[in-house]
Amino acid sequence: MRVKLRPGTHFAPVRQGVHVARGGESFVLAGPPTLYTVLDSRLAELSDGTDVDALVVAFGSESARPVLDRILRTLVDRDVLLDLDALTTPAPDGATAARYAETLAYLEAHSPDPYGDFARLRGARVRVLGSGPAAEPAVRSLRRHGVADAVVRSDGFESSDDADGSEPVDPGWAVLIADHEHPSGPPAALPPGTRVVAVHAGEQVALVAELDDATGTAAFEAAAHRAAAWVAGDPEAGAPRPLSAVLAGALAARAVLAGLTGLDRSPGTATVIHGRQLRTSRIPLQDGPVGQDGPAGSLAAWTPPTEDVDPPAPHELLTAWDPLTTRWVGLVRRGRDLDLDQLPFALETVELLTGPAPTRAVGWGPDRTAAGVGALLAAARRLAGADGAAGATEGRWLLDGVLRQLGAELLLGRPGDPLGWDGLGSTEGRTLFGLLESWFDCTVELTRRQCPVLDWSLVTVTEQDGTVAATEWGETPAAAAKAALAAAVARAQADPEVRRLLAEHPVGTSVLETCSVTAVRLALSRLGTEPAVRGRTVRARRLTNDPVTGQLPLHCGPVRLS
């Protein structure tokens, strides 16, 4: 039995025998204290490749054969030694082994059939399609790994029978490079069966991924667009060119190596190159056809659920909504709000990264967590477009959309009744009213409108010059007044840009973030039975998928009562 020690194996003497470690796994080879001396003295032969006969000769005693045979078989069983006789392909000749020593050491350390894998590398056919600083490093790295047939082609992919004109050639691999500074047209149709590694060498970020039928070019392009959006406005996140493109080319060659050998493959993921130090992060690519329910198109009739559930606590919601804000893949980036006043209410801004340019949204609340929930809901409404609504549950999403529409109708159709000090109904509401006057020097008036459909109240806070500071819903006049005054205080403490963002939603539904599940159930029930709806139907379409983030963890989408 001919054997060879796998690279990266370590021996150490212990009381019970020899401690053996390789590839993150370890065990103790039981034996006398001299066992370590036996292995250590024959380390050179084991590393170069040897057999029992040679080891017996080296020890000069035939009596050592049973012990040596047992040791070698144990180490083969534990995958510490390669059984060279069991391999399907012989080791390469000495000159080839010396030339590709690094690749062979990697394969010998990790592969169950290292020389078979090396033969596949030597016989692989790889075409690098595109130009720019990523192309030549990709070819150089491929050749350094052992791929002999690797070339850059900018004029397309030659046909599979170009080699000798007789029999077809394996279509092999294509590395498709899209470079920011060296644009090129789409490549010609690849031969059937060609495996693809895509490279995006952008202005400030680069991505590399092996693509397949499940994670195609569209998913990769969407991930590249999202990563570029994350980098925009963050100078520390940008990767300098041309170094990022050069590294992307080398990583593309590494992806081909992984695909050919099956070692360290990461199907369904892309590697992002970012930062001034050229760091790398792996992100998932979504399976299946890329796309999402967009805000355009007709809405389907939607039956509101007869029952809804209590949403999790705000901190639990933010944890559940982490995919929305995960770096590189999330569709929302939290703002840097250190310069925003955080008293009396917390304010949080976010950027929605799904469009051509980031758009901002804002949320407020009694603490930072509640403000974060409000900001993410505001961003989800922006994502949904016209008639956009969002909620922690299905019922709160639908009710959010209906309340906003009914509120807009009430503001246009009913003048409203004055709501005085006695109508505030709670210490919190009166405190907020006084805070506006004493701290922000803002005298306001409140008007109340009653919703004929849900029996909820809509309260508007108006400043002396006629500016509407806030309009909010509530289950009761006092609850609506408290919510509206709180929104007005949040607006008063904010800077002009945040005030503008708050004013983009003329009707607020912050009550839905805190009201009881019973109130939501009653409101949803009345939507289906109240004659005052006048035969209108709740129409909605939930957005369920983002091409990069994947399944959206909250309920959002356009909602309309029509």
Walk me through this protein's architecture:
There is one protein chain. The chain is an alpha+beta fold. It folds into 3 domains: 2-86, Alpha-Beta Complex (Outer Surface Protein A, domain 3), CATH 3.90.930.60; 124-284, Rossmann fold; 300-561, no CATH class. Helices cover 37% and strands 23% of the residues. It has 19 helices and 26 strands. The strands form 7 sheets. A 7-stranded mixed sheet has the order 8-7-9-10-11-12-13, sandwiched between helices. Strands 14-23-26-18 form a 4-stranded antiparallel sheet. α8 runs parallel beside α10 and α14 crosses α19. Mean pLDDT is 87; it is low at 289-295.
What Rg, in angstroms, do the CA atoms define?
33 Å
Strand order of the largest sheet: 8-7-9-10-11-12-13
Uncertain stretches of 5 or more adjacent residues: 289-295
Could you say which structural class the secondary elements and strand pairing correspond to? alpha+beta
What's the quaternary structure here? single chain
How many helices? 19
Arithmetic mean pLDDT: 87
- Helix-residue proportion: 25-40%
Shape: elongated
Q: Number of DSSP strands?
A: 26
% residues in beta strands: 15-25%
How many structural domains can be distinguished in the coordinates?
3
Major pleated sheet: 7 strands, mixed
Cα end-to-end separation: 81 Å
